[in-house]
Write a structure and sequence with these properties.
This protein is an all-alpha fold. The protein has one domain: Up-down Bundle (Growth Hormone, Chain: A), CATH 1.20.1250.20. The protein is about 80% helix and about 0% strand. Helix 1 (about 10-40) runs parallel beside helix 5 (about 135-165), helix 1 (about 10-40) packs antiparallel against helix 7 and helix 5 (about 135-165) runs antiparallel to helix 15.
Amino acid sequence: MSGTKYNYTYIWLISLVAAMGGFLFGYDWVVVGGAKPFYEPYFEITSPSAKGWGTSSALIGCVVGALLCFVKSDAWGRKPLLILSGFLFTLSAIGTGLADDFFWYNTMRILGGIAIGIALNLSPMYISEMAPPHLRGRLVSLNQLLIMIGVLSAQVMNWQITLYDKQIPQIVTDEIIRQSWTGQNGWRWMFGVEAVPAFLFFLIMIFMPESARWLMKNGQPDKAEKILAKIGGSDYANAEIMAIQETLSIDEVSQVHFRDLFEKKLFKVLLLGIFLAIFQQWCGMNVVFYYAADIFQAAGYTLQQMMLNIVVIGTVMVISVIVTMLIIEKIGRKKLMLIGSLSLSIGYGLIGSLFSFRITGLPVVLLTLANVAIYSITLAPLVWVILSEIFPNRIRGAAMSAAAMALWVGNFSLTFSFPAIKENLGWANNFWLYGAICAFGFIVLFFTLPETKGKTLEQIEAALVD
């Protein structure tokens, strides 16, 4: 609304706190990549299936967390589930660091996955439902920035821990790693330090307000009005409440109708959301994050050089998301998504060609960093911005959770299958496969993705389902 005096301090505060869930997701998501060269020898893991399970077990929990949001986020609200995720992040970090066998390691990782499934689903949704339209893209991208800062934090922690261990020579074997300090204890600290920010998120989230749109949907307009007035004043609150009420019929205020997801118009939007979620995973970038050490090893780097290269990847990701926050409201969602998918396709083709011609070293690193930057500016933040915008108020929680479950199924299938795919296809064919997937994604998005820049959630709903 023009002339509205927004309380920007309050808006950014609640967005930053919610985005801490993104930070924890980023750390938990990537820490396993740096820890795997050490916990695998410790647990004596050698088969491709066991390696895939150790890397991807948390993703089973992610599906459970998304399913919990699907069933309960519209009934319980966003805040209680975000508090639960903070508790589970804390428990998982401590439990993984203390695990003495592969079973308990994976059990604790699954608990952390539940927390990830909740946080990645609800943190951007919560921010989207609280943010004014002209700031929504930037603030939801803030969640992605915190994710990338969490990623970088995990990478720096992993790297510094390996530098601390003077027992690791330039060329190492599994037995040498197993007997080293990092092979016995260092990898535990990689997981365990997450407990500090996780517990802080758990505590602070207790004092945050509930989503105003959720309060309206569940018949608590007085509480919603107070929160919205604190964001933009009484006139802004009244206008927002009227807009929200127009999208909620009386019998939909107190309950969720999951059958609404399968209405013809809504189902088309749901399918678009599910495609976006799966495409973000199957574009191949998670292979770079989870298996960066393997990629750089294949490119001829030593263990500690690999860790440094992984830190550089995280730095590029953080800088790239800052770029997104500066340009998203100017360029728009659709154009950036198209640029990203096409550029990734070309980048993967070039990386595959390098491996095909046995060109290793710096060219592989530079092209990998270029693809990471492209992904971090486009698909990484924008998919969550778009998902938080396109679903109608009355079924947003359920629809967002359905898309998140699809995302984690895609992530698990990609991560679990990658060791076997790599063994059968080789590095070159593997990257060419992801290039083809990105080209297909470009075509689908060109014909189906609407532009949502600068519109209220209610305006987007009207455009998509009317």
